Please model this.
Amino acid sequence: MLSPGPQRIGKRLAWLDALRGLAAVLVVYEHAVAGLSPSVHAASGAWFAAGWCGVMVFFLASGYIVPASLERRGEARAFWIGRVFRLYPLWALCMAGALVLLPVTGSPLAHLSMLQDLLGTPSAVSVLWTLSYEMAFYLLVTALFTLGAHRRSAEIALGLAAVALAGAALLPTGALAGASLLALAVIAAGLAAVLGGDGRVRQAGAAVLLVAVTTLLAFNGRLPAWQSLIVVATMFSGTALYRAEQGQITWARAWIVLAVPVAGVLLSPGTNLKTAFVAAWAIFLAGMALRGHGVPYVLSWLGLVSYSVYLLHPLLLRVMPALWAVPATFALSALTWRWVEAPAQRLGRRLVTAGG
Model:
């Protein structure tokens, strides 16, 4: 989602879909096994955080493909139209379910921005916290592209990991909770300048986005600051690996991102998170190494519906036993992919084409 290279970005990347499918299974396992067998969940969770491993694979995959989408299109407005129609229709369905089944609190604007986890607002559905980091990454990538600094992915990943290590015990959590709406207004103004302005206005908007989003990540996340920074460093690591694969940077330069999982392991307080970091990177690098080979159809299909699986399974686990909720999740995800996600993405592409 970059310039054309050995693998055409316009076509689905089966190996990346397979990794997304595996990531979705890991997250569903984490949440379902707690209901199916609390003893198994307690025993396995002590040494391996399957859900954390899954979301880290998702973050690596997003880092690999999302900036490529922006750069392939060549301008930010088309990228954001695509992102809105990719994310929001299913998110709206998930939020509707949450309003019926769960207590939803906090600022509606924070929820609507998808940045709620960085704005002091509890996520309506537990898994939605990851979308806050996806959105933060999109904003940072947009700003860097506008400023012409988007090829610095490896250095950015390394810098974020270094700040996480240096400031692990110093950076606060939720320090800007009283200024969340102001932060959201600043981000909205910065993005509007990037999308609607030109020349210096766009560059000023990009600078505002960089400062505002980085400040939220470092000082106002629900997660410890080191964890927020490592999450975003992981996404930029995925981008660096993509750039090396496409010949945009050398592999020697790209491999400095291995400092990111090392930092994650060093900073993680428990064995379960340490093994999850290592496993996520091993899974992603193995997927890259095998990208020229075929992948099982079931994993590729799971990757296709992984967004639906990820967002909907907590709601189904809320209303039925895990033994039934898991197969129901996959069945419902097939339907929501066909009738919600795919049509919305087609509409987004038509709007981009019409506007181009």
In short: The chain has one domain: 14-355. The first helix runs from residue 14 to 36. The two ends are 17 Å apart (CA to CA).
